């Protein structure tokens, strides 16, 4: 029979047999820890996004583009800080100047797309924006009628819109999909491009993709909380929408339209 003792409150408390040995504590599995991190990141970004962009009382129709810029910038900074704190074994093969994964078409959320648009507006001249608009239209025309899967399978023949002179020309504003994409073996990446085999296995760290996906999920959840259009967009198509007409003014108009709850990105188009 298990021993019994009394607590300070006088209640009888049973002790396990064997001299009161502590019950072993089962540490969370790596899978459980990863899921807990994903849940925390998604919830944090959702709450931050909602609190930062919630319309002011009495003035609900005024969009705050600066707040949108700040919350997305903070989301990117959060991912970067988490990456800096990780000790990865094996280390990442991704280095400055490595562009193997830039032969690809990536998806991003509306907040990320608008952040990218604002970055373009801040870093390119009106003439450069018009040149980019023409380049974007050509790429989008080439993607017309293709499904996500078809685009993914042909990715090695579709360099990123922003791959210029062997570098990412929008690196500070690159979306979370790019930040989470990683490899521990650059030879695998090169082989994938040379063979044009989209199914070539590339060894990577799932934790980085999980962090990026979770932060993206939080941005989408925050958007939905504010009744804003929320979904995943192909970066080339989103850029095409932002640069149509007069690129110098269309980007801001797009941001204002989305912040007012209008389905700018979701308008039916012949893709």
From TrEMBL:
Region entry Disordered, spans: 1-29
UniProt cross-references to InterPro entries, sorted A to Z: Puta_zinc/iron-chelating_dom (IPR005358)
Segments of skewed composition (Basic residues): 1-16
Superkingdom of source: Bacteria
Protein's recorded name: Zinc-or iron-chelating protein
